[in-house]
Amino acid sequence: MTMSELVWGPIMAGYLFFGGLAGGAYVVSALADLFKGEDYEALSKSGTYVSFFSILIGLVLLVLDLKRFQVAPLGILNAYRRFPDSILTVGTWTITGFIAISLVTSILWLFKGNALARKIVEIVGIILGLTTTAYTGLLLAFARGATFWSSPLLPWTFVVSGTLTGLSITLFMIPIFAVFMPRIKPFWELYNEKSKFAEMVGQSQKYVAVLIVIELVLVIIELATGHGHVEILLTGSILSLIFYTYLMIGLVAPLGISYYTTMMKPTKDETLILFSMGQYALILMGGLLLRYVILTAGQIFH
Amino acid sequence: MTMKMTRKEFLKVAATPMIIAPLAFEGLSKGTRSPVQELGTQKAVLVDVRRCIGCKGCQVACKAWNKLPAEQTEVNDKEYTNPTYFSSITWKVVHFKEIGDYDNTQPGTGGLKWRMLADNCKHCIDPSCVSVCPTGALWKRSDGPVLYDINRCIGCGYCEMACPWGIPHFDEELHSIRKCTMCFDRIDQGLEPACVATCPTDTLQFMTLEEAKRKAQEAEAEGLHTYGYSEVGGTNWIYISDVPFSEFGLPELSSVTHKNYQYNLLTRFAGVGLLGGAALVVIKTYADRRETLSREGGGE
Questions:
Q1: ipTM reported for the complex, 2 dp
Q2: Facing B175 at nearest CB: one of A67, A82, A142
Q3: DSSP character for B94?
Q4: Chain B residues near any Cβ of chain A (below 8 Å)
Q5: Which of A64, A135, B71, B137: disulfide with A91, CB 3.0–4.6 Å?
Q6: Which residues in chain A (179-198) have CB-CB distances under 8 A to chain B?
Q7: Would the pLDDT of B35 be above 50?
């Protein structure tokens, strides 16, 4: 199979990316709400809203990738039938549940619903969010025809990457929410008080760094214990170029920024925020490239 | 001009899709299953590679019986295999392989073997494609054939990824997955699959799975190679050869069935999670301890 004959192409990579990111963003925001409380309200809200819209984008991409959808759109309902025999059906139910939970949590935030109810919903949501993120990797790992994907580390790589990209988009969106939707509290209030936002961003850096290191370790172990097809990622193909780009912009450069912001401690809040925003953007691009590389490599050696 | 709608009319309009959707759902799921679900003992095809003369009669018969059109193929300069790949309209590929070295100083004594292998869907006993299919579009009939329902396929492509041999392919015109059906429609009429009926050398033989397994066992005892006897938990298409099947490019597969394969992977996934989680807790505890000690040291 060549890159032009792929069964699962960039749209599927987008689905895996948004699915993982949505799960990760929800988990991060719910954990912040459960354990950090009011100080992290902006982060919790941002992550919840982002997770809902991201999973919807993922769903649209999934539907676009179904080759029979235009002929028989209702046929998609059959994907609910084989629970729990098919992992894809398990995923369909999980994503459906996750959409409902992220919607309910978003409504509870938006309309200042009961905090206890929200926290109970969030506990369920954390389980569904993690399952959604892991599912994007398990889906590939269960495909026996693609030996490249046949690793228990692959789903964990996606879980870590999903959490990392989820955390990044959550923080990345706070200034955007603040600027474009200033009426929705407390984005503008937080963003306006630069030192407070800088503190939040600064504190997140150690989590970002830890997640990057774990992802890097997982990718290296996967390559070292691969199934003999690792060379494609290392030498002489467009895919290897994309893989190196992922390593550089998705992991190495953001890790460098983490080092700079944590160890060198920039004096100006604006500098810290600017560097961190750049870092989040790089992590997001890296997350998408990771899905694309893994998805494509697995099919080329189908 | 504005249209006014009463609450009753609105409810009627709003409720229509809710009524139609489940009906269509039921129609899609129940109305299109294969007519025969339960049959007697499992059927199998035994392929003795040593007998094949490479006439490609099986390939032609497959196309003819299943009304599969020809497709543009490319000549492969290294071998005579053509076409070299499966597609939605090519369900059988005959591999041509020169195996070993020909010693021209001693004619007739060289190790060169000229072998052909008629390859197609193996009709696994526990098929990966069936296992992963979310809609039940693919299923295993109790007498052996792995079949598909074009009306239930949603075109997710997962079966294409899951099959170790890359057999199922999506047909853009039919809007469904397609693959070898073991000529179930012929079997239902007491006939052999078209490829078997055409084979002039009895390379392909139609029999019960039990008999095919017994013959494969005997072949193994004679030191021959078999394929499909134990791979992926066994298949209904079993091969016997005097050369290793890796020569034909067939992947080496364990005897683990797809269900167990998934279970093993899930167990290892959980194991990695537990180990990783424990490692993170240890590292965090160590880091906290060091921080506390350094703080205490600084305080003194």
A1: 0.93
A2: A67
A3: E
A4: 21, 24-25, 28-29, 128, 131-137, 151-158, 160-166, 170, 172, 175-176, 232, 251, 258, 261-262, 265-266, 268-269, 271-273, 276
A5: A135
A6: none
A7: no
* A217 in contact with B, Cβ within 8 Å: no
A150 in helix, strand or coil? Answer: coil
- Residues listed for chain B: 300
Which of B136, B153, B258 lies at the smallest CB-CB distance from A68? B153
Q: What is the pLDDT of residue B37?
A: 45
C-alpha count within 13 angstroms, C-beta hemisphere, residue A87: 26
- Residue B94: beta bridge partners? B118
Q: What is the pLDDT of residues A136-165, one digit of tens each?
A: 999 999 999 998 899 999 999 999 999 999
pLDDT, tens digit (0-9, with 9 covering 90-100), for B116-160: 999 999 999 999 999 999 999 999 999 999 999 999 999 999 999
Residues with Cβ < 8 Å from A261, sequence gap 6 or more?
A202, A205, A272, A275, A276, A279
For residue B118, give the H/E element and its range. Answer: strand B113-119
Question: CA geometry: angle at B6 spanning B1 and B8, to 5°?
Answer: 145
Cβ(A275)–Cβ(A260) under 8 Å?
yes
Higher-pLDDT residue of A299, B74? A299
Residue partners of A177: CB distance under 8 A and separation at least 6: A46, A49, A184, A187
Instruction: Give which of B248, B228, B230 is closest to B238, Cα–Cα.
Output: B228
In degrees, rounded to 5, the angle at the alpha carbon of residue B163 between the alpha carbons of residues B160 and B164 is: 130
pLDDT in tens, A167-182: 999 999 999 999 998 8
The tens digit of pLDDT for each residue in B89-112 reads 999 999 999 887 666 666 665 678
